[in-house]
Amino acid sequence: MIKTLDSYLLRQARGRGAAAKAEPEAAAKNNRHTMEYFALRAGRGHRETSISHYDPQVDALIADLMADPAIAAAQAACEAAHAAAIAVQAAGLDGED
Length: 97
Hints:
mainly alpha; 5 helices
């Protein structure tokens, strides 16, 4: 499931990995991440709660993992990279009219 428009845009920009985006013919065959794809998977504003009864256990496991400085640093680096990729994608969209 795609959680946000930002995540969708990154997935669309990244492609499926089977063909380089620079290869138009291959990329055209490999383009499943359309707005229709996003619309069908975006949740349409509905929160999925069917497994929320696991939240306390998951939160405890995540807290245990994040107590490890190496894991916390890796998580922070991933979050920063994701935010940077979103910013680059947004800047590219702002330039396209």
